[in-house]
Each structure stands twice: as structure tokens, then as C-alpha cells.
Amino acid sequence: MTGTIIQPAAIKDILTGILLCMLIIAIMYIIPLIGIFAWIFLPLPVLFYRLKTGRNGGGIIMAISLSVLIVFTSNVAFNTLYFGTLLMTGFFLGEFIEKHLSIERIMLYTCFAVLGTCCAVLLIYSSSQNQGIGSLISSFISRYQALSFQLFSESAQLYPEMKVDPQKLEKASALFVFVFPGIFINSYLTMVWLNIISIKKLLLKKGITIKSIGNLTQWKAPEYLVFGVIVLSVLVFLPVTIIKLIAVNCLIILMFVYFFQGIAVVSFFFQKKSAPFAVRFFFYILIAIQPAFLFLVVGLGLFDTWIDFRKLDTQPHEIK
User: Hey, which of 105-109, 142-146, 156-160, 178-182 has the most confident mean pLDDT?
Assistant: First the structure.
């Protein structure tokens, strides 16, 4: 980071960044069960060394890591899109964190930068294959529909006593595909958020504080998003499929935004009351495994727009 992070021996840092990226990718391939969680932190080495060595260093780490992966797997199309997206996320996060933007802009600009780059890669790939980008996307959707149906079918076979109706199974698969865009975007936003929190802690250990991501417990979604929730809730009931598809997925994304706000409120009170790590860990596990707690946090974030729980707690109490 210009003027904040002192750049040491760049070559050593770049090699370390590449090795860390390749290690995470190797874990994803060799131990799939752990790899489910490992992919979340693939952007982190690129992000850290982008801030430490600068733009050129971060770019070299990203490019060489992806190139080595393509050579060893001989799969240009899939790996370029999947792993390239994760590596680019770390690079662009470093770019926008270095500019000291707000947390909202850091996440939003990173998403648009990665999306734009992926679209450009798809256009170049489709041109080289003499195939339209529309047919590529249609092929991906068809394969994903078949994969999701297979997944639901295999799950039903594991529990034959449930006697799942094939028609209901097909409907569940179709519903999952219907809401997949919103779920995918939310999982990506979660990854970005976790990497921001991780880099914040890594920098704090080195005595570096970034104001834009300094106190995330005070984060609050823009108030105008509430009107988006109201409008989208109405559009969901319209009989037009494309409008319903867009409205449902946008509503899923907005609910996740308020989930982040709810987590910020919870973290604020945990921090204020100096709650033990075991209590925090237990509560976050409950959120992960119990939908009721998940919806409770979403509701907390949504109502915080009007009530502002953190401000209420900081108001002085009158002594009567």
C-alpha cells in the first residue's frame, strides 16, 4: 500500500504468494471436503501480496498461479473462468482497498471488475471457438440443470424410506436452478466479505489500520434499499416469469445485505459486552445450521434501518 506498507524483497514475496495460491488449489483438488472451504481464501494471498508488493507483484502472482494451473490440468476454459475469478477477486480487492474507498464501494467495484473481466474472457473464448456467447451460457445452464437434478436424485436414493415423488424432485431441482443466480452472488459476496475481514486482521497484526474497513461493526446498509425490498416483494407476485425470476433473485441478494447488517449489530454487542470467543463461536454456528437464527439476523438487520439498535445502546441513561 503506497505510503503505508513498506515493500520488502519483492521476488521472495511474489514466490511466497504463488506457492500459497498453488497450495490452496492443490488442497481443493486433493482433499475435496476441505477444498469446499479452502476456495474461500484463495483470493487472500493475491490480496495480501498485492498490498505488500504493489500492482505489478499482485499481477504476477495472479498470472503465474493461473498459468501453472492450466499447464498441469490442461483445462483452459473451466480453470480460467473459475480459478481466474477467485484470483482476480484478490487482485481487485487490493486495488480498491488501496484507494481507501468505503466498504460498499470496495465490494461493489470488485464485483463489477471481476464480472467485466470474465465477460471479456468469455467473448474472446467464444470467438476462438466460433461459438456465440449465448450458446455457451445456454450450454452451461443445461448442464447445471442436469447436474442439480442428478444431485437431488442421488440424495433421494440415499434415503429410500422418504419415498420422494419424482415430480416433486424435478420441481425442487427447477426451483433450485431458478434461485441459483441469487445464491451464487450471495456466496461470492460472502467470500469477498471474509477476505476483507481476514486482510484487516492480518494488517492489524502488522500495526496497519485502514479506516474504510476499520470498524465493520458500525456498518449499515443504505436506507434507500428498503424501498427496493418493498418493490421487489410486490414484483414477486406478478405472473410474468422473467420479472419474477429477476425479482426473486434480487430479493435474495438484498436479504443477504441485511444479513450482513444484522451480523454487524450482533458483533457490535458482542464487542461491547466483551463476550467470550466460545459464546460468539456458538452463536455463529447456530446461524450456519439453524435457518431460524439466520432469518432472525436478517430481520435484525432490516429493522435496524429504522430502530438503529447500536445508537440506542450508546445513548446515556437518565438517573431518576
Answer: 105-109
CA atoms of 295 and 302, how far apart (whole Å): 10
The closest of 256, 312, 304, 318 to 111, measured between CA atoms, is 256
93 and 139 assigned to the same domain = yes
- 12, 103: one domain: yes
pLDDT tens-digit readout, 107-123: 999 999 999 988 887 78
189 and 248 in a single domain? The answer is: no
Among residues 223, 221, 205, 203, which one has the least CA distance to residue 213?
Answer: 203
Residue 28: pLDDT over 70: yes
* Rounded alpha-carbon distances, angstroms, from residue 241 to 179, 181, 182, 236, 244: 13, 15, 16, 9, 5
- Range of the structural domain that residue 243 is part of: 215-320
What cell does 41 get? 481464501
Is residue 167 in a domain? no
Per-residue b or e along 138-160, where b marks 16 or more CB atoms closer than 10 Å to that residue's CB = eeeeeeeeeebbeebeeebeeee
225 within some domain? yes
Question: Going by C-beta distance under 8 Å and a sequence separation of 6 or more, which residues neighbour residue 267?
Answer: 216, 217
